[in-house]
Task: structure prediction
Amino acid sequence: MSMRIVLVGTTHPGNIGAVARAMKNMGLSDLVLVRPKIFPHAKATARASGALDVLQNARVVETLPEAIKDCVFVAGASARSRTLSWPTLAPRDCAQKFQQLSQSGAVAAVFGPEKSGLSNTDLDHCDALLTIPTDPDFSSLNLAMSVQVFAYELLLATQVGAAPAQATDVPLATNEELEHFYAHLEKTLLDVKFLDPDNPRHLMRRLRRLFVRAKVDKNEVNILRGILTAVNRVGQSK
Result:
């Protein structure tokens, strides 16, 4: 069972150390850094006081898909409203979801750069938005505070325990398997001229939302890709 914290594009190394300490306080250890601006660094080490093991074991990767490829559920932290709506969870609800789905595989909470937050492209790889309620007159939380709030809720959810996951012999599709499916789907939609490459609008983003709601398992994603392959085959024969 893995509950992972992923930091994307963190600009200040001290924030990475503070996040490691927040995680250690709440019993978390799986930290992945996506393109940190400066790491390792003495400021990260200093701010991680008492949590050097979390910091030293942190993995550094180049892309968000690489950081979450084995995950069955991913929540992206964001305080900004979006053009297209994502399923949105408060920290407590999200923590309970993590506790339940972690029985099926790895789960991850993703936090973006300090100033800009996660991009819509980053959120395309997430199953839900994690939004921390704050006073509307002062809604800014720093990175370590945000992780600390969510990590605390994860600790509570772990102590309470989760409702049993729905019994199934087939595990959920991983993020990597779904990304291969989305790429296959987009190529097929382009081939059959359903998707206009010059005016794609939000079609693929909307389709991602549809399959996120469906919670596709491994067998189902294989069936869907089999259908796409059959469509591709018919198109090539003409």
About this structure: The first strand starts at residue 3 and ends at 8.
